[in-house]
Amino acid sequence: MRFEHKDLLDIDSLSVRDISMILDTAEGMKEISNRPVKKVPTLRGKTIVLFFQEPSTRTKLSFDIAAKRLSADTISISSGSSSIVKGETLIDTAKNLESMNPDIIVIRHPSSGAAELISRRVKASVVNAGDGLHAHPTQALLDMMSVREKKGRIEGLNISIIGDIAHSRVARSNIEGFTKMGAIVTVAAPPTMIPKGVETLGCRLAPDIDSCIENADVVMMLRIQKERQETILFPTEREYSMLFGLNSDRLKGAKRDVLVMHPGPMNRGVEISNDVADGEHSVILEQVTNGVALRMAVFYLVAGGMKNAD
Amino acid sequence: MRIRLKGARVLDPGNIDGFKDIIISDGVIDALMDPCIELPPVSQSSSESNREVQPSVYTPENDSITDIDITGMVVVPGLIDMHVHLREPGHEYKETIKTGLKAAAKGGFTAVCAMPNTSPVNDNNSITAFMVSRAKELVNSSLSSNDSTRGSGVCRLYPVGAITKELKGESLCEYGDMKRAGIVAISDDGRPVENARVMRRAMEYAKGLELPVISHSEDINLARDGAMNEGITATRLGLKGIPNAAESTVIMRDIALAELTGASVHIAHVSCEESVDAIRNGKKRGVKVTAETAPHYFTLTDEAVARYDTNAKMNPPLRTERDRQAVIDGLVDGTIDIIATDHAPHSPLEKDVEFDRAAFGIVGLETSLGLSMQLVQDGRLSFGDLINKMSKKPALILGINNDLKVGNPADITVIDTNSFWSVNPKTFLSKSRNTPFTGFSLKGEVYMTIVGGKIAYQRD
Ligand SMILES: [Zn+2]
């Protein structure tokens, strides 16, 4: 078995076998995080650039910890830092990064396709940490990892995703990933948040939150982004919460052992009520823990870790 | 100095279709004759049936004639592209009047209309005059002085003036003054005239000057932030979409305004089904509306964006297969009168970037005829229809007489309809290379372009 990809750009380009391999590797990595000395020498001497062109503390931290636990050196570059000159093109930046001879470049960027654009210009492996509205593959993989861990499988599960599907790269990657692994994905949101032809991504569209949740094994809530309000997607947070917010009453329609997930950060009281966020079904914090292990696995695999392990 | 084009089929739809030799003298068509007839002494030829007007006076000096054998080719009235962005003044690194007009000649065009969104904008007579004189200067600077059949390699330029000052959509430009300087139409192309009242006044005022109004139909609120067609490809790629309605609603408005004012409105770059329907309806109602589409809209769909190819990014965007078919149907039934290119040169500075930050537009002058010929190969348009859409109709709208008739300027395109060729941007005469058609295999190619009696382009 061998991981054949130089980059991790999106879920679309992964096979079922690729995804299984990443999840298996991540499970192995999780054990490292539970040791007293949380560090292995696997990627010693390797350089990982964290190139974040969009504000993000959590994802960046997760990648950073993952790299450090594998003993890689990390360099952080963000839009505010002096190494990025204003007006420099993404391709120039890529060439500059390349000249530092990194082994892996982790990129987050507000433009869809940016990770792919960079990957065509550099020899280093590129890991997409979120590009525009397009993809957030490590988030989807850690969500799949969390579900598989709790349920023992992904195939045949009912996955409900509720929220701004149109403007969510997390939703896109999760719909593609869970569908690919044999789950049945159903989405719901006000029609302003449903992209044209959403079914072509592989999911079903429910008319409202209750029918979306019905019989669900997993309910995944997406963050409502207040900063997107100028695009007039819904009248008020109050009304959104009333029609599409998850609360314990609504959750009764799902299976008894339903998992509640959220990629964070949450707007408590808007898309998810306090009691559900902290309740017995919530695996939101486990998602964060698994995020580190999953990203360790991704670094290990794109760095060629499995190449000697056929 | 005279030129005789020998052996070709001459097709001027509604005028001539047959094998004729064309004699060009002093830049004008001097005679159209049945082949194999000896060239008569010019002074005695006025009674000949195939001589239509009084010929030029015979003198030994002008009796020298250069024969150009173009057997197997088709001669048509010079093609006219009424939608081109030449970028000069202001963005000469993308295209200049010179490179644009040379690319046009290579594409078979004997004339192009230059849109006013230059920098500064062509919104007053001095910019119009600059463009006109620059083009004239280029025509007069002959490239090869030892071959008198050769021109300087450029075609004619007809500027389009802005509808509103600085394209801001607020106040009207001096159309009358600009018309004297050479504009043939008005448009704020690149931007819509958002305010319907301003558009109404522009149409009314332009009507008095017999200037057509070219509508760049786009609701910028609906299109805002959009990078490609709103549809399943955009959904998959995570790109914000531009819906068909962003185009069709403004077309409907401008047709209504043309009906209100009695003005002539020409709809630029029609890309989708709803727009075609709206124009068809407008024509049915007797509104003076004409329309154009561009080769990319009847050749490609939004799937061409594939992996964020910025050379497939233009405005309006490539649409779906259903829209592509509707555009072809519109061309076939005459709803769409014209094929124009919306030639929009951009450098790698604007195109070699993130998709949502890339500029809209592609070059089109050097691929237009080849791509449009595919409609003839596919049996959707007759060759005559195609020449109507690429030559006669634009001439009619712009008030240009390009009939192949004795006494008219010799603006002539010679087409090798059977030639196979493939698109190679490295061979473009345009300064820019932003085309999604690299590697396309096409049948039908420009063989020669004659502008004002001189050869502006000839295939090697
Ligand atoms: Zn336009």
CATH architecture of the largest domain in chain B: Alpha-Beta Barrel
Name of the top-level CATH class of the largest domain in chain B: Alpha Beta
Task: Decide which structural class fits the backbone of chain B.
Answer: alpha/beta
Name of the CATH superfamily of the largest domain in chain B: Metal-dependent hydrolases
Largest chain interface and its two residue counts?
A-B, 24 and 20 residues
Shape assignment of chain A:
globular
CATH topology of the largest domain in chain B: TIM Barrel
CA radius of gyration of chain A: 19 Å
Low-confidence stretches of chain B: 43-55
Shape by Cα distribution of chain B? globular
Oligomer: heterodimer
Overall pLDDT confidence of chain A: 91
Radius of gyration of chain B: 22 Å
The main sheet of chain B orders its strands as: 8-9-10-11-12-15-16-17
| Main pleated sheet of chain A | 5 strands, parallel
Overview in brief:
By secondary structure, chain A is of the alpha/beta class.
Q: Care to describe what's here?
A:
The complex is a heterodimer of chains A (310) and B (460). With 310 residues, chain A is α/β, with parallel strands linked by helices. Chain A has eleven helices and nine strands. Chain A has a five-stranded parallel beta sheet with strand order 7-6-5-8-9. In chain A, strand 1, helix 2 and strand 2 form a beta-alpha-beta unit. In chain A, helix 1 (16-33) crosses helix 11, helix 2 (58-69) crosses helix 11 and helix 5 packs across helix 11 (284-302). The longest helix of chain A is centred in the C-terminal third of the chain and has 19 residues, at 284-302. The N and C termini of chain A lie close together (5 Å). The model of chain A has no long low-confidence stretch (mean pLDDT 91). In chain B, strand 15, helix 8 and strand 16 form a beta-alpha-beta unit. Chain B is 29% helix and 21% strand. Chain B starts with a strand and ends with a strand. Chain B has two domains: 2-72, no CATH class; 77-407, TIM Barrel (Alpha-Beta Barrel). In chain B, helix 7 packs parallel to helix 8 and helix 8 packs parallel to helix 10 (321-333). Chain B is of the alpha/beta class and 460 residues long. Chain B contains 13 helices and 20 strands. In chain B, the strands form four sheets. In chain B, strands 8-9-10-11-12-15-16-17 form an eight-stranded parallel beta sheet. Chain B has a six-stranded mixed beta sheet with strand order 3-2-7-18-19-20, with helices on one face. The chains are: A alpha/beta (310), B alpha/beta (460). Chains A and B meet through helix 4 of A and helix 6 of B. Zinc ion binds next to loops of chain B. Zinc ion binds at residues 189-190, 216, 268-269 of chain B.
